[in-house]
């Protein structure tokens, strides 16, 4: 019986399609409760985010309309889970009546094709536009049991490699750079205090983020102010936040990228602060920490299949809550927070998310980072000083 299934033309097409979309196009199966006779595959980084392989018999327009209704209902759940607003679906119908095919062009977001045999995949214009190499990849020298074994082996191998990649990304690693940054912040606070209040106040006055002083040529304040804190509570809160968020970013992006994101975010936070805060001085690692939250948000976008709920229920609410607190409580440099947040997102885009970002996206990220930095330098050092 098993060999009969493998030799069935429709099942062979299904196997070949699964092999193509999983191993060649990096689609992943979606587990759906209560959905029979169809396979859903997702790749949210593709132009066509969802591919459906439908074996259900569709004899008339009413059945097709119900299929569209069911598909839209499932898509709403996927959009909500993955924080994706625009999803394109490509459905491959293996058992559709000819009198229904005219309805396949009625919805631009739910593209569909009727496939009776492999020749339909080679000739169909929609297939050629969406997946031009599909027909070529459907050719195999193996047949029957050998074909089944090859496809199964290739998919299992791909899944194992994908699991290893995910393990490398999400596996907990010792956050040495985070520890180092925490130590530096503590040294900048405790050492001057041990030497006396006058020394501590001198350090604050000489190295804080202060627009007029920076525009007078003391540019080092843009960085040194990131490592100063006004009280033990201020230091503790920032170091705790740095440990929680920084450990994750260091693990996800790697140590060098993490350090670049931290410093760039702190710099952009300082520049936006001196642009919009007038002559008010500020200190603290908050701008850089907001940059790390921006990096976490960017990373979560690419891994939203796995982190969608965390992004929606934890990361975004924390960012919004902290910005709200910054605007309602006096004495908090919220412009520094916003500048850091933007800097974190942009620097993450430039550095890229491993196995996810494209060279095109990274190049655009570097260009936008440079433009943003030049804009802030002009606004903070020239325009704000007029």
What can be said about this structure in brief?
With 386 residues, the chain is mostly helical. Helix content is 66%, strand content 6%.
What does this structure look like?
With 386 residues, the protein is mainly alpha-helical. Helices cover 66% and strands 6% of the residues. It has a five-stranded mixed β-sheet, covered by helices on one side. Strand 2 and strand 3 (50-54) form a beta hairpin. Helix 12 packs across helix 13 (255-276), helix 13 runs parallel beside helix 17 and helix 14 (286-302) packs across helix 16. The longest helix has 27 residues, at 144-170. It is elongated and about 85 Å long.
Could you tell me how far the N terminus lies from the C terminus, measured between alpha carbons in angstroms? Answer: 84 Å
H/E topology pattern: HHEEEHEEHHHHHHHHHHHHHH
As laid out across the biggest beta sheet, the strand order is 1-2-3-4-5
Q: Which CATH architecture of the largest domain is right? A: Up-down Bundle
Q: Give the helix level as a range of percent.
A: 55-70%
CATH fourth-tier homologous superfamily of the largest domain: Rhomboid-like
Uncertain regions spanning at least 5 consecutive residues: 1-6
CATH class of the largest domain: Mainly Alpha
| Rg measurement, Å | 27 Å
Strand content: 5-15%
Main β-sheet: number of strands, strand sense, barrel status? 5 strands, mixed
> Which structural class is indicated by helix and strand composition?
mainly alpha
Mean pLDDT, rounded to whole units?
90
- The CATH topology assignment of the largest domain is Rhomboid-like fold
Number of strands: 5
Number of helices: 17
Number of domains: 2
- C-alpha geometry: elongated
């Amino acid at each position: 019986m098993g060999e009969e299934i493998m030799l069935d033309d429709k099942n062979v097409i299904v196997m070949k399609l699964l092999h193509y979309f999983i191993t060649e196009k990096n689609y992943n199966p979606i587990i759906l409760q209560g959905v029979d006779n169809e396979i859903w595959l997702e790749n949210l980084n593709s132009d066509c985010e969802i591919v459906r392989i439908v074996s259900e018999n569709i004899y008339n327009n009413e059945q097709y309309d119900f299929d569209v209704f069911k598909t839209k209902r499932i898509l709403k759940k996927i959009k909500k889970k993955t924080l994706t607003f625009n999803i394109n679906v490509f459905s491959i119908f293996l058992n559709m009546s000819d009198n229904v095919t005219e309805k396949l062009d009625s919805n631009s977001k739910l593209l569909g094709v009727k496939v009776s045999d492999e020749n339909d995949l080679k000739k169909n214009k929609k297939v050629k536009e969406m997946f031009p190499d599909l027909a070529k990849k459907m050719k195999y020298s193996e047949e029957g049991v050998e074909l089944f074994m090859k496809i199964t082996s290739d998919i299992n191998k791909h899944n194992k490699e994908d699991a290893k990649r995910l393990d490398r990304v999400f596996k907990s690693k010792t956050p040495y750079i985070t520890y180092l940054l925490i130590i530096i912040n503590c040294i900048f606070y405790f050492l001057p205090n041990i030497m006396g209040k006058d020394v501590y106040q001198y350090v604050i006055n000489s190295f804080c983020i202060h627009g007029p002083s920076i525009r007078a040529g003391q540019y080092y304040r843009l960085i040194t102010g990131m490592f100063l804190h006004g009280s033990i509570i201020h230091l503790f809160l920032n170091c705790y936040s740095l440990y929680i968020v920084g450990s994750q970013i260091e693990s996800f992006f790697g140590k060098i990228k993490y350090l670049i994101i931290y410093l760039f975010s702190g710099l952009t936070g300082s520049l936006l602060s001196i642009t919009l805060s007038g002559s008010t001085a500020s200190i603290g690692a908050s701008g850089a920490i907001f940059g790390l939250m921006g990096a976490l948000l960017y990373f979560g976008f690419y891994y939203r299949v796995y982190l969608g709920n965390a992004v929606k229920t934890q990361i975004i609410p924390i960012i919004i809550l902290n910005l709200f607190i910054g605007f309602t409580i006096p004495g908090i440099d919220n412009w520094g927070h916003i500048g850091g947040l933007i800097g974190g997102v942009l620097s993450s885009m430039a550095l890229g998310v491993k196995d996810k970002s494209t060279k095109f996206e990274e190049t655009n990220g570097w260009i936008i980072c440079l433009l943003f930095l030049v804009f802030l330098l002009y606004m903070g050092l020239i325009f704000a000083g007029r």
